[in-house]
């Protein structure tokens, strides 16, 4: 523009400024978009997308419904057709190799003798092992035999003393020996020692203690009580031996259960001001109830199967033998001394039934007082 004449420059400058202002005015007053139209268009696009998604979902559902599902048997066959790797086959072989000895032992030493005993209870077994089927004759004779019921009563009387006292004393000892104290390991070993000692040695020691002439108990008490010869108290004396000999085993089980209880509970109870007795009944017993239940079940079964104490403490000529002989002792007498294995097997089947009934009642009753959580 500097090469144009001045008149033209002025005219051009005027015209340029006017056009520039006109353009600026038009840009400022440009028509704004309609918001309603934009919202309507966005809603239409959203509806279109929703319809497409719904149509796609309907197609997938229809394809799923029309698809044929393979039966479970076909899947199992396909799974079986898959060849296992060498590592999997070796693992399977080693697993069977490890459990096979235990399975053989259970079958040979437990299951098969049970089957044989039940079978022999229906037979009359001769002196040379020959057996003839006798039906329910052995059971009829057993239910009518007062000696069987007396021995069963003696067994229950023994269990009534041995089970609760052994559990209670062992639990108290376990609570005391679970604390920090000097010589704790020595005390634990001393209380567990009766479990290690042979039953024959235990019987000899207690027979000497119970001797009415020169026994230690009568010497200390200054009396001449016939501890194992008096039919009225002989069964109590035998039960005391059972309690003494099993306390250590129960104590070890309770110690294992006590060590699983967190110490935080006792610390919180101590902060709240709870006494030791209250903590025992509110914390220890509820948390130890699974262990107590296990000990209870095993001790009931063990007490009903008592034999060695009666056999070694009581002589055949003892006048109190009939008031102390257990059901297992009676089985031993008929099966091995008299040679009547059929009748002895029937007695054992009776004991098996009693133990099973008591165990079932214990399993039902434990739901009310055993806390596994």
Question: How would you characterize the overall build of this protein?
Answer:
- This protein is mostly helical and 373 residues long.
- It is built from 15 helices and two strands.
- Strands 1-2 form a two-stranded antiparallel ribbon.
- A hairpin with a 5-residue loop joins β1 and β2 (131-133).
- The radius of gyration is 44 Å and the shape is extended.
| Average predicted local confidence, pLDDT | 83
Strand arrangement in the largest pleated sheet:
1-2
What separation lies between the terminal Cα atoms?
Answer: 99 Å
Q: What is the strand content?
A: under 5%
Stretches where pLDDT falls below 50 for ≥5 residues? 6-16
One letter per element, helices H and strands E, the order comes to HHHHEEHHHHHHHHHHH
Proportion in helices = over 70%
The general outline is extended
Question: Major β-sheet, in short?
Answer: 2 strands, antiparallel
- CA-atom Rg in angstroms: 44 Å
DSSP strand tally: 2
Number of discrete helical segments:
15
Structural class call reads: mainly alpha
Tell me the layout of helices and strands.
Blueprint: H1 6-28, H2 35-66, H3 72-81, H4 86-120, E1 123-125, E2 131-133, H5 137-143, H6 146-177, H7 184-196, H8 199-210, H9 216-221, H10 234-258, H11 263-271, H12 276-304, H13 308-313, H14 327-337, H15 341-365
Antiparallel strand pairs: 1-2
Helix pairs in contact: 4-15, 5-15, 6-10, 6-12, 7-10, 10-12, 12-15, 14-15
């Amino acid at each position: 523009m500097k090469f144009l004449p001045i008149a033209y420059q002025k005219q051009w400058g005027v015209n340029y400024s006017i056009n520039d202002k006109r353009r600026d005015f038009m840009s400022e007053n440009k028509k704004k978009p309609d918001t309603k139209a934009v919202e309507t268009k966005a809603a239409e696009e959203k509806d279109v997308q929703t319809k497409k998604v719904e149509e796609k979902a309907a197609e997938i559902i229809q394809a799923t419904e029309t698809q044929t599902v393979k039966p479970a048997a076909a899947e199992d066959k396909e799974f079986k057709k898959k060849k296992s790797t060498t590592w999997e086959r070796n693992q399977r072989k080693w697993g069977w190799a490890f459990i096979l000895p235990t399975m053989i032992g259970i079958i040979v030493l437990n299951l098969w003798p049970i089957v044989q005993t039940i079978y022999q209870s229906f037979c009359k077994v001769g002196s040379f092992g020959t057996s003839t089927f006798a039906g329910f004759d052995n059971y009829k004779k057993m239910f009518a035999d007062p000696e069987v019921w007396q021995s069963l009563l003696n067994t229950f009387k023994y269990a009534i003393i041995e089970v609760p006292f052994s559990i209670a004393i062992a639990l108290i000892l376990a609570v005391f020996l679970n604390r920090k104290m000097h010589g704790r390991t020595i005390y634990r070993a001393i209380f567990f020692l009766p479990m290690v000692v042979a039953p024959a040695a235990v019987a000899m020691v207690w027979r000497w203690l119970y001797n009415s002439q020169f026994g230690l108990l009568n010497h200390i008490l200054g009396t001449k009580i016939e501890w194992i010869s008096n039919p009225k108290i002989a069964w109590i004396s035998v039960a005391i031996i059972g309690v003494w000999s099993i306390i250590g085993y129960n104590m070890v089980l309770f110690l294992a259960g006590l060590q699983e209880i967190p110490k935080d509970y006792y610390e919180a109870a101590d902060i709240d001001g709870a006494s030791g007795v209250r903590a025992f009944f509110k914390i220890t017993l509820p948390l130890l109830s699974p262990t107590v239940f296990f000990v209870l079940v095993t001790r009931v079964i063990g007490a009903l199967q008592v034999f060695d104490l009666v056999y070694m403490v009581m002589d055949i000529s003892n006048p109190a033998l009939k008031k102390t002989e257990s059901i297992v002792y009676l089985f031993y007498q008929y099966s091995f001394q008299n040679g009547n294995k059929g009748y002895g097997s029937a007695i054992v089947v009776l004991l098996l039934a009693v133990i099973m009934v008591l165990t079932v009642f214990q399993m039902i009753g434990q739901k009310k007082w055993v806390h596994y959580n």
